Amino acid sequence: MKKFAVAALIAAVVALTGCSRGPDVSNLQGDLQKRLDTTFGEGLFKVTEFRRYGSQPLSAAENDSRDRIAIYYKADIELQKDHRFSDWSGQNRATLYQVLGSAEKGVEGVVDKGNQSGDVITAHGLSVYADDNDAWVSVSAAGTESEQLASTGKPGLVSEIDASVNPRDAVMPTSWQQRAAGELASVAEDLDERGMTVESSALRSGMRSLLTEASLKVLKEKGVNTLVSGTQGGDYYALGEGIEKAMGQAAVKVTAVASTGARDNLALLRQQLTGFAITQSDLAIAAYTSTGAFERNGSEYIRALASLYPEPVQILVRADAGIDSLANLAEKRVNIGPDGSGTQGNARQILTLAGVDYRDFSTYELSISVAELVAGNLDAVFVTSASPSNYMRGVGENIKLLPLGKQLVDSLISGRNGYVAHQIPAGTYPGVDAPVDTVAVTALLVADLETPDAQVEAVLNGLFDSSVELSAFGERGASLDRSKALSGVAIPLHPVAEKYYSKGE
C-alpha cells in the first residue's frame, strides 16, 4: 500500500497548489474512456469511478505554443472481459500505463497471470490538455514528460545522464571512477551546449563502454557473478535489476551491471568478463555464426537461456516528410541508432535489403534522435524496442510509423536470423489508427557455454519459478512467459536450459 500512500500524497499536494482550469470531471472521465476504447477496443474497460485531484500548468511543447495543463486523477476501471496483459501479440501492461498517464507504482489490480471480467484496476494518473481557442483538447505529453509527471507529480524533462556514468549503476563507486565520470560528463554537456551532438553521443558511448568493462574486471576478480543488461531507464536495465532481485534469496546470486547495449554485451560475454548477458536474438545468431557485425569476433560458445519479450523494429517518420516506403528514405535525414546498438544492426540489414545506402545516415543516441525528429531536424528514426517504446512517449500525431512491405517481411523471417513477423496494434501511439506490419527480434538472455551449471539453473528459476511478482522486472516483466521462452531462439540452448524446458511447466 506504500505506493498508493505516495500517490495520494502527490495528489493532495497538487490539489492544494493546482487550479480548477481545464475540462470538468464528466469530460475528463469521457476522454479517458475514449482513450481506453481507442487503444484496447470497445467493450474491454468501463471507467466506473473518476475523481479529479488537481492540476498544474506546463510549459509550451515543442512546435505547440498553446497553454497546457496536467490534470491528476484517480479512476476505478472495471474489466468487461478477460484480458491478459502479458500477451506478446496484444496490448500490454506498458500500453495501459501510457494510456492512463501513470507510472507502474500508480496502478493496482493488474494480475500477472491475466485479469478476469469484473476485476477492477485502480489508477492514479494524469491527462494533459491544451487550450485550443478556449476549448480544452486532450494532447500527449511531450517526450519523457508524461513519465516524469506521473512518477513525481512535478513538471519538467528528465535530465539525460547515461547509466554507467552513475557510480551505483556501474557497480563500482570508487573515487577515481566518480572523478572520471564527472569530468567526461562535463565535456559531453559542453559539447551539447555547442550543438555538437554527434561528438557528445560518441563520447558518452565510449565512456559507458570503458566504465562497464572496468567494473566487470573488478567484480570478476572479487568472484562476483554478473549479468550485463543495458542503459539506465531502459528495458534491459530493468530486467537485469529484476533478475538480481529475484535471486536475492537464492544460494547463487547474480549482480546486474549496466552496459552500453545488446551488441556490446555479446563482446563482454565472449571475453568472459561476465557469465550472462541480455541481447537480441538476431545479434546472438550473428555472434554464434561469426557473421555480419561479428564476422571477426564471434563466439561458438554462446548459448541461449530464454526469450524474454518481442522487440519490434519501429521506423518513425515525420508525416510531412513525404516518406511512404523504405525507398523514400534515400536522400532523407535518417538516424539508424548508435554504434554498438542492436537498432543499428537491424537498420543496416533492412536498408540493405531495400537497396538504400545508409552510409551517410546519422548514428545519434536513440533518445537524442527522437528529440531531433520531433524538432524537425530529422526525417526518420529507427528504433528497435519493446512496444510501446519509452523512447517514443509523447512524440505527437505528426510522427507516424512506416510499415514494412510483405515481401521484405517474408525475406527477413525466412532465414534463421532471429526475426519473427510482428504487428504493432492500432492505438499503440497517437496517430497510429491501423495495425502496422513489421518484424521483431526477441530480447534474449544468453550465457557462455562455460558458465557454471548452478548459476544457469539459479537464473532460470529466478525468471520463471520465483515468487517475485513480474512487475519487479519492469514494465516488460508482464511478458515473461515460459511457454514463449524458445520463440525466436535459433542458437543452441545451454545444456542446463535444455533440461529445464524438457521437464515442462
Give a description of the structure.
The protein has 505 residues and is an alpha+beta fold. It is built from 14 helices and 14 strands. β4 and β5 form a beta hairpin. α2 packs antiparallel against α3 (93-100) and α13 (453-464) crosses α14 (495-502). Residues 9-20 and 152-176 have low confidence and may be disordered.
How does the SSE layout of this entry go?
Layout lengths: L1 H16 L7 H16 L4 E14 L9 E12 L13 H8 L6 E2 L11 E13 L2 E5 L5 H8 L22 H19 L3 H25 L4 E3 L6 H12 L8 E3 L4 H9 L5 E5 H9 L12 E17 L15 E2 L6 H12 L12 H10 L4 E5 L14 E3 L4 H9 L5 E5 L11 E13 L4 H12 L30 H8 L3
Parallel strand pairs: 6-7, 6-8, 10-11
Antiparallel strand pairs: 1-2, 2-4, 3-4, 4-5, 8-14, 9-11, 9-12, 9-14, 13-14
Provide a brief overview of the structure:
With 505 residues, the protein is of the alpha+beta class. Helix content is 34%, strand content 20%.
